[in-house]
UniProtKB/TrEMBL annotation:
Signal peptide: none
SUPFAM superfamilies xref list: MetI-like
Protein's UniProt name: ABC transporter permease
Record-level GO BP terms: cellular response to sulfur starvation; transmembrane transport
Keyword rRNA processing carried by entry: no
Domain ABC transmembrane type-1: 69-249
Membrane topology term: Multi-pass membrane protein
């Protein structure tokens, strides 16, 4: 028994640095690709880890990137809020109403398969240039995971619970608020996590619609200034923030499922 516990502990210690090992290997490949030891192109040196991390420190020390990060996070929050306000109620309605599900299934699947970026010209023509078309693109990208996960959660509710609510003469509102919504929260958290991932992918090209701030705008700005080390630094920032957002939602999902 003691040897089994020791083997388990040793295995956990072996697994612990594996993510760091993956990052180290990726960094080594990155350095080998950009080091002057293997090529004579001076442009590739601007993409090197040394210059990238120097630019990263400079961006935060001067505070240059902070307003753009806050602007992008605000757009993500607004887009996600609009998507939740539309997608969750719509998904619940589709889940509880079989005729509505059959009526909207083909339509929703058709619209869902259209790339959100395909709506960019329409969004600019209808809503103009600024934050509104960005909000529209983020919302339409995020709404479908929420609709599908909410409806799937309703369909997965234990039928015994619904029969119990009927036997207790519960109203539809009581059944919805006391049984259905608490039961589908894991599905909703999964939908929000998927929605955040899609929003974060769509955000950068959406912020190239003539706005004057945001991470997507700043990438264009660094490209125009030929500041390639800053460009790669901003790409790293986008990846880190996206990873952090996904980690928070993954943690919330684990906490909810373990509590229940």
């Amino acid at each position: 028994m003691t040897s089994t516990i020791q083997l388990t502990k040793s295995a956990s210690w072996i697994k612990l640095p594996l993510p760091l090992l993956g990052l180290a290997i990726a960094s080594l490949i990155w350095w080998l690709w950009t080091t002057p030891l293997w090529h004579s192109d001076p442009t590739l040196a601007d993409f090197s880890p040394e210059r990238t991390f120097a630019a990263l420190v400079l961006l935060f020390s001067k505070g240059t990137i902070i307003p753009h990060i806050l602007t992008s996070l605000r757009r993500v929050f607004v887009g996600l809020t609009v998507a939740i306000a539309i997608g969750v109620p719509l998904g619940i309605l589709v889940g509880v109403s079989r005729p509505l599900e059959e009526t909207t299934s083909a339509l929703f699947q058709f619209i869902r398969m259209i790339s959100p970026l395909s709506w960019m010209p329409v969004a600019v023509m209808v809503l103009g240039i600024g934050d509104l078309p960005v909000y529209f693109l983020l919302s339409i990208a995020a709404v479908w995971p929420l609709v599908l996960n909410a409806s799937a959660g309703v369909l997965a509710v234990n039928q015994r619970w619904l029969l119990l609510s009927q036997s207790l003469c519960a109203t539809r509102w009581e059944t919805l608020t006391q049984i259905i919504i608490p039961a589908i929260i894991p599905h909703l958290l999964t939908g929000v996590r998927l929605a955040i991932g899609i929003i974060w992918l769509v955000l950068v090209p959406a912020e190239m619609l003539g706005v004057s701030a945001g991470l997507g705008y700043y990438i264009l700005d660094t490209r125009d200034r030929l500041s390639y080390s800053e460009l790669v630094a901003v790409i790293l920032i986008i990846g880190l923030i996206g990873y952090a957002l996904d980690s928070v939602l993954r943690f919330a999902y684990q906490q909810w499922t373990h509590r229940n």
